[in-house]
C-alpha cells in the first residue's frame, strides 16, 4: 500500500493525510531533540512509547469531558486524530519551579509554586519560541479573549487530571506544555487539546528519589531516555510490569 501524502514533518512527529476528510495520521518518530534542535539523537523505541503514552493521556482526558483531537491508535507508531487549526502558542503549566522559570527568576528547582502558573510561548523555532503575554496574543490576533479564557480553563483541567494520574503512581508533575487547536463543525468552533502529551512535553520526577523521568534525561545527559520513558509507561500500566526489554519495548495491545 502506498504511503499517504505527507502534510508536515516536525522534530518528533510526521503528519500524513488521513483516511477520511477531517482526519490526520500522526506518526511518532524516534528522534530526540533539545535546545531548539541544537542537540539531536535517535532513541530507538522512543516513538513507540510516546505514541502509547499520548494515547493513554488523551483517552483519559476524553473520558472526563476534556476534548482532544485524538480518535484512536492505529498501530505501534501511528494514531488517528482530528484535523484542527493549531493556535500558534505553546501553553505551559508549571506546578514547581524548573527549567527556564528557575533561570529567569532565580528560584531553586523543585520549589513548589503557590498556585499553578500558566505561561504562553509563540510557536516559532527560528525565534526560539519566545514567551508572550495575553497582550501580544490579542494584539497580533493569534487568539481572541474568549479563546484565551477557554485555553486557560482547558490547561488547568489538563493539569488537574495529569497531576492526579501521576501522583497515584508516585510521580510529581513538575510542569508540562500542550498545544490547542480549533475544530470547526459548521459555523461552530470549539477548542481541543492537540499535538501530544508525553514525557517529551512534561517534566516528571519520582516523588521519593527526585529521579527525572522526562526529556531532561536527554537534555542533561542523566542516563537512558528509553529507561526513563519505559518506567513511566510501566507505572501507568501501559507496559507489562515484568517487561525487561528496554531498547525495543513490547507494549500491551
Tag the structure with descriptive keywords.
globular; 253 residues; alpha+beta; 7-stranded antiparallel sheet
Topology record:
Layout: E1 6-9, E2 13-17, E3 23-28, E4 31-34, E5 39-42, H1 46-63, E6 70-73, E7 78-82, E8 85-86, E9 89-96, H2 99-105, E10 112-122, E11 131-132, H3 134-139, H4 145-168, E12 171-185, E13 188-194, E14 202-206, H5 216-219, H6 225-235
Antiparallel strand pairs: 1-2, 2-3, 3-7, 4-5, 6-7, 8-12, 9-10, 9-12, 10-11, 12-13, 12-14
Helix pairs in contact: 1-6
Task: Please provide a written account of the structure.
Strands 8, 9, 10, 11, 12, 13 and 14 form a 7-stranded antiparallel sheet that branches. The longest helix is centred in the middle third of the chain and has 24 residues, at 145-168. Strand 1 and strand 2 form a beta hairpin. By secondary structure, the chain is an alpha+beta fold. The chain contains 6 helices and 14 strands. The relative contact order is 0.16. Residues 242-253 have low confidence and may be disordered. The chain has helices spanning 46-63, 99-105, 134-139, 145-168, 216-219, 225-235; strands at residues 6-9, 13-17, 23-28, 31-34, 39-42, 70-73, 78-82, 85-86, 89-96, 112-122, 131-132, 171-185, 188-194, 202-206. The protein has a domain at 85-206: ATP-grasp fold, B domain (D-amino Acid Aminotransferase, Chain A, domain 1). Its EC number is 6.3.2.6. Residues 6-235 form the SAICAR synthetase/ADE2 N-terminal domain.
Amino acid at each position: 500500500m502506498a504511503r499517504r501524502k505527507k502534510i508536515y514533518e516536525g522534530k518528533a512527529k510526521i503528519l500524513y493525510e488521513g483516511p477520511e476528510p477531517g482526519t490526520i495520521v500522526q506518526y511518532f518518530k524516534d528522534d530526540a531533540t533539545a535546545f531548539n534542535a541544537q542537540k539531536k539523537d535517535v532513541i530507538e523505541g522512543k516513538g513507540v512509547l510516546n505514541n502509547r503514552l499520548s494515547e493513554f493521556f488523551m483517552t483519559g482526558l476524553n473520558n472526563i469531558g476534556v476534548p482532544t483531537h485524538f480518535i484512536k491508535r492505529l498501530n505501534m507508531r501511528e494514531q488517528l486524530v482530528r484535523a484542527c487549526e493549531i493556535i500558534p502558542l505553546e501553553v505551559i503549566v508549571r506546578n514547581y519551579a524548573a527549567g527556564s522559570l528557575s533561570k529567569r527568576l532565580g528560584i531553586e528547582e523543585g520549589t513548589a509554586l503557590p498556585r499553578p502558573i500558566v505561561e504562553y510561548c509563540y510557536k516559532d523555532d527560528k525565534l526560539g519560541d519566545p514567551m508572550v503575554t495575553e497582550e501580544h496574543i490579542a494584539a497580533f490576533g493569534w487568539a481572541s479573549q474568549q479563546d484565551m479564557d477557554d485555553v486557560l480553563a482547558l490547561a488547568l483541567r489538563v493539569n488537574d487530571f495529569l497531576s492526579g494520574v501521576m501522583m497515584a503512581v508516585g510521580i510529581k508533575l513538575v510542569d508540562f506544555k500542550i498545544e490547542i487547536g480549533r475544530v470547526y463543525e459548521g459555523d461552530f468552533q470549539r477548542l481541543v487539546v492537540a499535538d501530544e502529551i508525553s514525557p517529551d512535553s512534561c517534566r516528571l520526577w519520582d516523588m521519593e528519589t527526585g529521579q527525572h523521568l522526562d526529556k531532561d534525561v536527554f537534555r542533561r545527559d542523566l542516563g537512558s531516555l528509553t529507561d526513563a520513558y519505559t518506567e513511566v509507561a510501566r507505572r501507568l500500566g501501559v507496559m507489562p510490569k515484568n517487561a525487561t526489554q528496554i531498547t525495543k519495548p513490547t507494549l500491551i495491545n
